[in-house]
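Why do we bother with holo predictions? Because pocket geometry can differ from the apo form. Keep that in mind while you read this record for fructose -6-phosphate.
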Amino acid sequence: MEVVILPDAKTIAATAADAIVHLLAAKPTAVLGLATGSSPLALYNELALRYAAGQVSFAQAKAFMLDEYVGLPAEHPERYRNVIEREIAARVDFAPGAVQGPDGLATDLPAACRAYDQAIRDAGGVDLQILGIGSDGHIAFNEPGSSLASRTRLKTLTRQTIADNARFFGGDPAAVPRHVLTQGLGTIMEAKHLVLMALGRHKAEAIHHMVEGGVSAMWPGSLLQFHPHVTVLVDDAAAARLQLADYYRHTYANKPAWQGL
Ligand code: F6R
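The structure, written out:
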């Protein structure tokens, strides 16, 4: 796991964008994994700017979303399919149908989850997965206690996540759906490169457990310690509880230029 401590959201976004632009230049048909929430917003802005500047094309790429609320009406602005459309898909040149997400309006939710895992496999798997992390340590919506081998399925949000996400629903926790469909931890672990972004002091404990704690379902992100290629991009505040912060800074400052992320 490579931990990169960067000064601000803009630098984190630019660093993640570099990795995606580099991947698409080498493999135009790459499969991306898209997260929602606040953490990737600056990255999506950066990618839209680079697309507008002619530096990257998504025309042959595919993308799979991490998760979706269950039961939000199709036109609801916070439905993750609509968020991803607004924040990135509509701002670049993805082909129609190239961006997929779990179907939170399916009548048979377990079947929709199985079909989603299969669609990811059929696409050849995710090349680069963007991730955020919840203040309770969740990855996608794999809340504490999630099976470390889980596949895409229904989960119930914790009270903490409902409170955290109320800001997207006019500050009203009662408006946040209780259920979501989420890629499982086992599904996410099959992506070839995981790029996790976290900003702010409220993420410091989760980042500490994820990077330096024991691997445990109590901190689902800690499973990433078993993945061979993880890049963790954090600001100083999110890095505040890392015991080896000085070493991570030293390592990045001395990173051979040819290595990339
Ligand atoms: C969203 C997702 C979640 C968020 C996490 C952090 O697709 O998968 O795991 O990444 O809740 O959210 P923010 O970035 O809003 O702090």
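DSSP finds eight helices and ten strands in the chain.
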